[in-house]
Amino acid sequence: EPVEPEPDHTGGGKVHGFLHPRPIRRNMEKDMQKQLLAAGLLTIATQAMAETPVLTVLTYDSFTSEWGPGPAIEKAFEATCACDLQFVPAGDGAALLARIQLEGKASDADVVLGLDTSLTAAAAATQLFAPHGKNPALNLPIDYTDPLFLPFDWGWFAFVYDKTKLPEAPGSFEALAASDLKIVIQDPRSSTPGLGLLLWVKAAYGDKAAEIWKGLADNIVTVTPGWSEAYGLFLEGEADLVLSYTTSPAYHLIAESDDTKAAALFDEGHYMQIEVAGKLAASDQPELADKFLDFMLTDAFQSVIPQTNWMYPAVTPAAGLPDGFDTFRPAKSLLMTAEEAQTARDAALAEWQAALAR
After folding, report:
1. Nearest to 119, CA basis, from 27, 42, 190
2. Residue 279 in contact with residue 146, Cβ under 8 Å?
3. 83: closest CA among 294, 323, 352, 292?
4. Do 330 and 156 meet the contact criterion of CB atoms below 8 Å apart?
5. pLDDT grade, residue 95 (50/70/90)?
6. What is the pLDDT of residues 148-186, one digit of tens each?
7. Over 70: is that where the pLDDT of 289 sits?
8. What are the angstrom distances between the C-alpha of 98 and each of 101, 111, 119, 154, 280?
9. Measured between alpha carbons, how far is 78 from 316 in angstroms, rounded to an integer?
């Protein structure tokens, strides 16, 4: 007995328990057309992705964070390069070097951004970096040239304190060592600020550096793996001073409207950190890597640095520095050459370890 057709999700109807063949065929044809269209679009998208060059930049963790310079720089560079810029975080600056040494020519990175002058001699010794061939005009307190590595920012190391808790800060390492003040520092084996402190003491005191460390040993509350842990302990009130940068108070002033933080200025001068980038010789995007290094020294990149990386830009932006950024400027800058830093490192580390082991 005939029954009324019932609706079906395919658009056909059931009669006597059978599907009408024509609606099924039509819908199969439509489904096939949709599948072919989707496959075609996927192929086009895949081809487009394949044709978009990818530049891989290995850098330190904080550079790629949402509050770091990475996101803004990625957006600005991609607007000029018709490429996909990918920042790959790899720990601190010392970890960048260790990773490159481990991966060698097999590294997927095209550019390494975030080494500093205490590490560049060891990086050059890997023979993995290619000359950049550039001679830019830089705004640094000292003359700096390197055939393999280009600076993108710089700063002075300093001990930062809270003026409401410490009305008068020590004016030298000797005064700090003679005090009962508690400090937090970073491990020089894992942290570039920690290594910078070793070179700072060595550059300022030479053969007397071991004596300075003996005097400082009882001031040190703890040694942290990196900067963020140390600074966090300071903010929590676990120490009177923390090893950081002269620009750290600018962060509190500009970002938090807090003028209670200050940098202790030392009579012997302050050691500099110059952060650099270099192109890997094995890069499969050498022209794009060169374009990125050129872009790195433009206003679009450099203007991002002060209020995201909280360092001095290697080239002062056209708009200048933010108000309050240049409050704590040492009278004297200290910096070893890359070769001097590499030579001094082991002896300085041994002096530091011997003092803290007592």
Report:
1. 190
2. no
3. 292
4. yes
5. confident
6. 999 999 999 999 999 999 999 999 999 999 999 999 999
7. yes
8. 5, 15, 10, 22, 15
9. 22
